[in-house]
Amino acid sequence: SVVLPCEPAEELVAEWVRRCDGVMLTGGDDVEPRLYCDALTPALARTVQGVDRKRDALELLLVKEILRQRKPLLAICRGHQLLNVALGGTLIVDIPRQLPQALDHRRLDRKDKIVHEVTLTPDSLLAKVTGSRTLGVNSSHHQADDRVAKPLRVTAVSPDGVIEAMEWKPAAGSRRPFLLAVQFHPERLFERHAEHFALFRQFTRACAAKRK
Fold first, then answer.
1. Could you read off the pLDDT of 144-196 as tens digits, one per residue?
2. Among candidates 75, 90, 74, which has minimal Cα distance to 32?
3. Which pLDDT belongs to residue 172?
4. Reading across the β-sheet that carries 179-182, which strands appear in turn?
5. pLDDT above 80 (res 212)
6. Cα(211)–Cα(195) distance, rounded to whole angstroms?
7. What is the dihedral angle through the alpha carbons of 72, 74, 79, 85, rounded to the nearest 10 degrees?
8. Is residue 187 annotated as part of the catalytic site, yes or no?
9. Do 164 and 147 contact (CB within 8 A), yes or no?
């Protein structure tokens, strides 16, 4: 595995991606709101945390290059949101303020515990990999996807309707590279929950196939 330095230079990013069999976008702080909306109310602006414009720039370049080189992509939490923004989607800036009837999705006290279930789209990659119609997940985010980018489809939702996973939309006659974006953190659950380990197993298989 390789951890890429935070250097948003197109030629470097292209070379890094070329050397990798697949790429994982990890969790982290909030995406710069100006990348997906024109203005925020002062109350919403105060909820935005830890914006790193250099990281945003790097990961936007990464998404572009990953898709250009048709490499497998697994996007987790912030990575899930960044992917949506990179492809033209938008985000809910703060779930408690914009969706006051929603579940508490910021369960930082139970980062490595199942806190709620999500419903999976039956024919989705996520459903096939986990072998189930539902999946127990952890939850440590205060933002979520709002308008979904056109190339993507929602493949998991929580009971309150918050988007929990996305994949490519089906495309007739077109075989797209592996792409799975999840709002939860399978890396904190895989040791005790086989269905979360299965996500990484499927990703590494896609990477091995790309190498061949």
1. 999 999 999 999 999 999 999 999 998 766 688 999 999 999 999 999 999 99
2. 90
3. 65
4. 23-25, 73-76, 179-182, 163-168, 152-157, 116-120, 134-137
5. no
6. 25
7. 50
8. yes
9. no
* 196 is a catalytic site residue: no
Alpha carbons 146 and 85: distance in angstroms, whole number: 10
Residues of the chain with pLDDT > 70, as a percent, come to 98
Active-site entry in 65, 185, 195, 196: 185
**Contact at 8 Å (CB) between 111 and 138?**
yes
Report the SS3 class of residue 82: helix
Number of residues written out for the chain: 212
**Active-site residue (options: 187, 195, 196, 207):** 187
Token look-up 């830890």 returns 50
- The pLDDT of 112-131, averaged and rounded, is 97
Marked catalytic residue, from 20, 59, 65, 77: 77
7 classed as catalytic: no
